[in-house]
Inverse folding.
C-alpha cells in the first residue's frame, strides 16, 4: 500500500494554474447569497505567499515592526507552518541560485489573486484610544468585495461579500450603532483651520474612534478620495472633502454613516 | 424538437463576464424559476413503511384489545401514542421537504421561498443518476451526510441525483450533485425532462439516461466514485454524451 502524500490529499496548485481561476469563480458563486469567510492569515504568511519585496496591498503591523533579519526568520517560519498544514509546498528549481517554484491550496491562491486583480480599493484606518487597525476592501466582479480586516497584531481576516453586506459590517466596525444621538454640527473648514484644532471640532475630538477612508483606483493615483468617520458616546460625525480644498464636518446618524460606506463601495 | 437555449459552460474561467453570469444565476430565487409544474417528496420507501408498521401495528392492536381496567388501557394507549410520535419524527421531515419541478428550474427545500434553486441552464442532462440505497451515498463522498445537497429525508431508500448549480454554498466548483430522495426517481426524472424540453433545453432522453446510469450505493468502499464531480470548466455531457463512469 502506498501512503498518499500531502499533495495528493490537498491538491496543491501552481499560482498561474487554471484551478486557481476555477477556485476564484467558485468562491464568488458561493458568496453571492451570504458572506463567505475565507479564513485568517498572519502578516508573515501573506508576505511569504505574495513573495517578499512586492508592493504590499495591506498593512503588516507586526511584520513591519521587525528587523530585516527577524523578518527573514519570520517568513521562513510562516512558510514552514503553512507547509506542515498542507497549504504550501516549495519545490527547488535551481540549487545553486536557490530559485524555487511553489504550489499552494487553490483557495489560498484565489484569495491572493483577488487582492491583486482589482480596479478599486478602499483602505480604512481605525484609530482608537490605544491601538490602530485596518480594513482593506478590494472590488471584485458581480458586485462583490473582498474585505480584509487587519488587527493591531497583524492577523488578517478575509470575507467575500456583497457591497451592501460590507457596508453594514463596516458601519458597525466604525462604531456607529442605533442608540447614538445625532450631533448638530455642520461646518466647512480649510486645511489650516482643521490643523489648528478649532473650537467647533471639539465634539469630534472627543470621539473614541476615528476612521479614515481612502478610495483608490488602481493605476490612477489622481483619483484618490479621502473622508472620515468619527464615533463616540456623543454621536457620529462624517468628514468629507469639499470642492475648493476645504473639509466639511457634519453630525451624522448611523444611517448616514451606512450611506457613506455604501457610497464608498458603490452599493445602491 | 430543436433546442433553443444553451447550457452554462465555462470554457475559460478567465473570461471577465463568467463570474457575472454565474453570480447572476446564483442570485436567482424561487420566483425566477416560474410556476411549479410538479412536486416530489422524500417519502419513506416500502421497506421503511413495513418496518414502521411491524413496530406500531402490534402495539396498536394490543392497546385496542379489551383491557382489564381503564388504568391499563390508559397506559397502553399512552405507550402506543409515544411510539407513534417517535415514528412520526422520522416521517414528518418527508412531509415538508419538497423537490419542486418548475418551468425554469428546480426549487428544493422546506420552504416555498427556498434559496436552493437549480436553473435548467446549469443542470447537465448527462449527469443524472438514479441512486438506490440513497442514504448510503454520503459514505462515499467528501461531504457531510447532513449537507443540504442530500435531500433524501430520513427513510427514503431511492433518489435521483442531478448535477447543477450549487446554491447551498459551493466548495470545489460552482456545480454540485443534488441527491433528491423520492419513492419514484424515474418519475422525477421524467418531470425534469419534460420541463427542460418545454423550456427549450436539449434534454430529450434525460429520464432514460438516469435509469441507464442507475447506481447502488454500498456500505463498503465502492469500486468507482458514484457521483463524479463536475469541475467549473468541465463541459456539459448532454443526453448523448459519454456515460458516467
Amino acid at each position: 500500500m502506498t501512503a498518499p502524500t500531502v499533495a495528493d490529499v490537498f491538491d496543491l496548485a501552481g499560482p498561474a494554474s487554471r484551478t486557481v481561476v476555477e477556485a476564484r469563480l467558485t468562491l464568488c458563486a458561493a458568496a453571492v447569497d451570504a458572506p463567505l469567510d475565507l479564513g485568517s492569515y498572519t502578516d508573515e504568511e501573506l508576505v511569504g505567499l505574495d513573495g517578499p519585496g512586492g508592493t504590499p496591498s495591506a498593512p503588516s503591523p507586526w511584520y513591519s515592526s521587525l528587523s530585516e533579519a527577524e523578518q527573514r526568520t519570520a517568513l521562513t517560519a510562516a512558510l514552514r507552518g503553512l507547509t506542515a498544514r498542507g497549504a504550501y509546498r516549495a519545490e527547488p528549481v535551481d540549487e545553486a541560485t536557490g530559485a524555487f517554484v511553489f504550489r499552494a491550496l487553490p483557495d489560498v491562491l484565489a484569495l491572493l489573486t483577488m487582492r491583486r486583480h482589482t480596479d478599486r480599493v478602499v483602505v480604512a484606518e481605525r484609530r482608537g484610544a490605544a491601538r490602530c487597525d485596518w480594513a482593506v476592501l478590494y472590488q471584485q466582479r458581480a458586485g462583490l468585495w473582498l474585505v480584509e480586516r487587519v488587527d493591531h497584531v497583524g492577523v488578517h481576516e478575509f470575507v467575500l461579500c456583497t457591497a451592501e453586506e460590507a457596508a453594514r459590517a463596516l458601519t458597525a466596525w466604525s462604531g456607529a450603532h442605533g442608540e447614538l444621538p445625532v450631533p448638530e454640527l455642520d461646518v466647512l473648514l480649510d486645511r489650516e483651520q482643521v490643523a489648528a484644532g478649532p473650537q467647533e471640532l471639539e465634539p469630534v475630538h472627543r470621539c473614541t474612534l476615528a476612521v479614515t477612508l481612502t478610495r483608490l483606483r488602481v493605476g490612477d493615483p489622481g483619483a484618490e478620495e479621502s473622508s472620515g468617520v468619527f464615533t463616540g458616546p456623543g454621536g457620529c460625525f462624517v468628514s468629507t472633502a469639499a470642492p475648493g480644498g476645504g473639509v466639511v464636518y457634519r453630525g451624522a446618524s448611523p444611517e448616514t454613516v451606512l450611506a457613506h460606506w455604501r457610497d464608498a463601495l458603490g452599493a445602491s | 424538437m430543436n433546442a433553443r437555449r444553451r447550457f452554462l459552460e465555462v470554457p475559460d474561467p478567465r473570461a471577465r463576464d463568467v463570474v457575472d453570469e454565474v453570480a447572476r444565476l446564483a442570485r436567482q430565487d424561487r420566483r425566477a424559476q416560474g410556476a411549479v409544474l410538479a412536486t416530489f417528496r422524500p417519502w419513506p420507501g416500502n421497506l421503511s413503511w413495513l418496518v414502521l408498521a411491524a413496530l406500531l401495528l402490534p402495539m396498536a392492536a394490543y392497546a385496542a384489545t379489551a383491557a382489564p381496567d381503564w388504568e391499563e388501557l390508559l397506559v397502553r394507549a399512552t405507550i402506543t401514542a409515544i411510539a407513534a410520535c417517535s415514528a412520526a419524527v422520522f416521517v414528518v421531515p418527508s412531509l415538508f421537504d419538497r423537490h419542486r419541478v418548475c418551468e425554469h428550474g428546480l426549487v428544493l427545500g422546506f420552504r416555498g421561498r427556498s434559496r436552493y434553486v437549480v436553473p435548467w441552464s446549469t443542470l447537465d442532462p448527462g449527469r443524472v443518476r438514479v441512486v438506490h440505497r440513497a442514504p448510503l451515498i454520503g459514505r462515499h463522498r467528501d461531504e457531510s451526510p447532513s449537507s443540504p445537497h442530500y435531500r433524501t429525508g430520513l427513510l427514503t431508500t431511492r433518489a435521483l441525483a442531478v448535477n447543477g448549480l450549487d446554491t447551498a454554498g459551493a466548495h470545489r466548483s460552482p456545480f454540485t450533485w443534488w441527491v433528491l430522495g423520492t419513492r419514484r426517481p424515474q418519475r422525477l426524472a421524467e418531470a425534469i425532462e419534460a420541463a427542460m424540453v418545454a423550456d427549450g433545453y436539449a434534454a430529450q432522453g434525460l429520464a432514460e439516461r438516469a435509469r441507464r446510469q442507475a447506481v447502488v450505493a454500498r456500505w463498503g468502499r465502492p469500486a468507482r466514485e458514484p457521483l463524479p464531480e463536475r469541475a467549473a470548466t468541465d463541459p456539459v455531457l448532454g443526453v448523448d454524451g459519454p456515460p458516467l463512469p
